[in-house]
Specification:
Layout: E1 5-9, H1 10-13, E2 16-17, H2 21-31, E3 46-49, H3 50-57, H4 61-75, E4 79-82, E5 95-98, E6 100-106, E7 111-116, E8 131-135, H5 145-156, E9 162-166, H6 167-173, H7 183-201, E10 204-213, E11 216-226, H8 255-261, H9 268-279
Antiparallel strand pairs: 1-8, 2-4, 3-7, 4-5, 6-7, 9-11, 10-11
Helix pairs in contact: 3-4, 5-7
């Protein structure tokens, strides 16, 4: 599961919802199991165990077991407000739906099983454009659900390296309602911890500043990029979506293999990532 990838429609990235840390871990662990090479139906059952959560996040098994049970009991009631259709299709419309239609907790096995809601399926499967992808491991050790949400918003603009977000829009997206109504409280309890978690646990570095409209703080401006690694001490270059790298290979997979096994509608990079993920499955 450590090499698993999360794919979400950008419309879902920008939806309004609130999940606790462990509810989010359950949902993301299941999303990462969605196969890119086959259609997703609302009858597909996904499972995640306390042991998997413990291995992924680094918490103790007893802690994972306790939180997994509590989170599974709340997850069925969690709602999400969508403002756009997946793949940029159709006109914008507000749709209120649920993440899941079924949640089962198997106590003896320490395992949660769920089925995604019917309306959620198009936002997770058969995405051909306007979607965001990142590794599940990028957010696994984050301890703030706000950090994961902010990380997704940054990944959505990964090539740009900068994103300006309205404070009002962010409050709505995170469903903060009346909490942290003062800007100092929002920065102290939401923004700073989220940025710290991104810098500590993800492949991105992130800095931020505020922008005022008149005397009021109206926007937050995030600047971010790929962290340097020991093997590469230069910033990672931007890549065109379908342009092969030198020699045509990606992730050690030859260009001829990628082109032969690519699915209809897949980009060059998506096909390579899928083949890499499949090759690591037991």
């Amino acid at each position: 599961m450590n090499t698993s990838l999360v794919y979400k429609s950008n419309a879902l990235i920008e939806a309004s919802y609130r999940l606790s840390l462990y509810e989010q871990r359950i949902v993301l662990a299941c999303i990462a199991q969605v196969r890119r090479d086959e259609p997703l139906t609302d009858q597909k059952l996904y499972t995640v165990s306390a042991q998997q959560i413990a291995d992924l996040t680094g918490v103790g098994l007893k802690t994972a077991y306790r939180h997994l049970k509590a989170a599974s009991e709340r997850l069925f009631e969690r709602r999400v407000t969508l403002h756009q259709a997946p793949n940029g299709e159709g006109r914008p419309a507000v749709r209120l739906t649920r993440w899941v239609q079924t949640v089962e907790y198997k106590e003896e096995e320490g395992m949660v099983a769920l089925r995604f809601g019917t309306d959620m399926v198009p936002y997770l499967s058969q995405l051909t454009e306007q979607f965001t992808r990142y590794a599940l491991a990028d957010v696994a050790k984050m301890k703030s659900p706000h950090a994961t949400r902010l990380y997704e918003l940054l990944c959505q603009w990964r090539d740009a390296g900068k994103r300006e977000i309205s404070v009002d829009w962010l409050r709505t997206s995170l469903q903060l309602e009346n909490r942290y109504a003062r800007i100092p409280d929002l920065k102290r309890w939401v923004i700073r911890p989220a940025v710290d978690q991104i810098n500590e646990h993800s492949p991105l570095w992130c800095k931020w500043e505020q922008r005022k409209t008149g005397r009021r703080v109206s926007h937050l401006v995030f600047t971010f990029g790929e962290k340097k690694t020991e093997k590469d001490d230069t910033p990672r270059k931007k890549k065109l979506k379908n342009a092969p790298s030198k020699g045509g290979a990606r992730f050690g997979i030859p260009q001829a293999v990628i082109e032969e096994k690519a699915k209809p509608g897949e980009s060059y990079e998506d096909a390579a990532l899928r083949l890499l993920t499949e090759s690591r499955r037991p």
